[in-house]
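Task: complex structure prediction.
Instruction: return structure tokens for all chains below.
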Amino acid sequence: MPVFSTKFGLSSLQPHQIWRCKLRVLDLRNTGQDFWNMWSGDMDHVPSSSLMAPVAEDMSRTKHPLTPLVIYIELCLKTKTSIKFLTYLLRWVEQRKASMHLCCKKIKIISRSRENIKKILSMVKLNCVQEVELSLTQKVSTLAKFASLLGKMRNVQRLLLSQIHGSVTEEQDHQALLQFTSQILRLQYLRDLRMAGPSFLEGRLNQILRCLKTSLYNISITNCLLTESDLTHLSQCWNICQLKGLNLNGVTLTNFRAELLQVLLEKVAGTLEELDLNLCGIMDFHLMAILPVLSSCSQLRVLSLCGNLISMTVLESLLRHTDGLSALSLELYPAPRESYSSLGILHQERLAQLKAELWEILTDLGCPRKIWVSPSPCPHCGEDMCYHLSPNA
Ligand SMILES: [Zn+2]
Ligand SMILES: [Zn+2]
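Output:
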């Protein structure tokens, strides 16, 4: 089957060229940032982490019509120009639908214009979509407008919600959220749920969890407020039994009972590969409570605890508890609490000394192991999380 991947703009590809070379598949995905920017307006098309591997292709569920030409594309509905261009492309395909199938497995919706989005999506086979990102920079009520569209994307495996601002205060917001979550019920292949900064979620996580019909392999809830009962619901829901990735970056757990985190991790210990608890306000007593369960996470590859205030003693204990985890290959820890003065100022020399002590413990433990220790905020760039400091060798 002739496959054609293009590095140049689609405008330079004439229909008669397609026919003349007897093209069967035209793949316009993963063509690199420059190409993508050129015609979709997406500036944030970045490569993904390990758990961001492309969603599994399952042709049995997303059968294509028996058309001579399949065009694979990723849609990013953002700027007016990109929407204008896509409208042109989709119309062009629409006129030739008997002989070609436009297959879109990944859609990112950033545009505020609901009309434009509806127009574009009405020309896309929503059955083909496997990954959808809604980044609406708008209020919760906006979610309702996309509810029915989401429900039609039956084969979605990864759902990302970002920049949905505002809390659910009015009845109209409440209804909108209900309308949206009720469509999650239809997503019978959903495996990966990511919510970045969902300010509407506080006290309502269960409303979403209740709608999950599948066992998730990744859940990411970041930079928002959760209640203790949210975390309890998460630890009790059956959908996380096979979880590989858990990310609670930027969710404050400081005032939560330490057992909550422990119970949550016990639930996923057998399968967990990546744990991100950066900037969670985790204290010594939280970490002490989860050390035993951490040591039983035999599949754990990535452990990230930066931006939390942890003492040297507990960090030492952490290194010993995780020593037997053979899969662990990336460890990111905060600078020990003792590296800071009572006013919170970082003492570089003190930090260097404490790091040397940590390396010594690792040497004593025998196995060669690399860890990263970074202060927060970073003295070089001021960021809470960064990779300015090199790991020990
Ligand atoms: Zn398709
Ligand atoms: Zn930095």
